[in-house]
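Budget justification, computational time. The allocation requested in the original proposal was used primarily to generate structure tokens for proteins on the priority list. As evidence of use, we reproduce two of the resulting records. The first is shown immediately below.
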Amino acid sequence: MIDANALRDHCLAFNGATEEFPFPRHQDVCTFKVGGKIFALTTLTDTPLTVSLKCDPELAERLRAAHPEVVPGYHLNKRHWNTVSLAGALPDQLVRDMIEDSYDLVVASLPRAQRLLLDWPGESRRR
């Protein structure tokens, strides 16, 4: 089961990833960003722990249909974001893959110069 420390470590392991607490009225809401854009949003002290992740709209629908732990993004664009409960029912690898997919979607939207600075593996597939 992925706990708060593992979630933080995994999100920060990506090139250029940063952790920020940008909401003064909600100081416990943690964002993980790349290139100034959010790819993961969580409150690391919540029980159960959840994380909101960017997702391709078609995949988002499939994940929601297959896993009750995956729901439309809480207070986010429900077409492009899922909120995922990390209470233990989802395989850890699936959660890690969803985080990586979210990171990749955000990096893919960055200007090419930023993608190159991040040494993003997906850049070689874009040519």
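The second record produced under the same allocation is shown here.
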Amino acid sequence: MSKAFESMEYVIQQRREQPMEKSYTCYLFEKGMDKILKKVGEETAETIIAAKNGDHENLVGEINDLLYHLMVMMNEAGVTLAEVEEEMDKRAGKIGNLKQFHVSDHNT
């Protein structure tokens, strides 16, 4: 796990446990899951637009914003980075196992 992600997870948890005045993270927690999800949606859209526009520098920034908001959402939902990493490890073991997709015959 990246130290940057671990550090951010720690800071987010600290803001939740010990709110700080004028903290954006605390503001999100105060507003609740609906606000957090709205921001995740906004950042997702901005990330897609940056990728579509081919603006590498902007895309890196938008991905960072999206990851931050996802981590706030994870904290609010009680999901840890360790759990996500564990799931990623499980799925990595399935790489190369192309799922068989059901093909529908729309003519029948």
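A brief technical remark on that second record: The CA atoms of residues 88 and 94 lie 10 Å apart.
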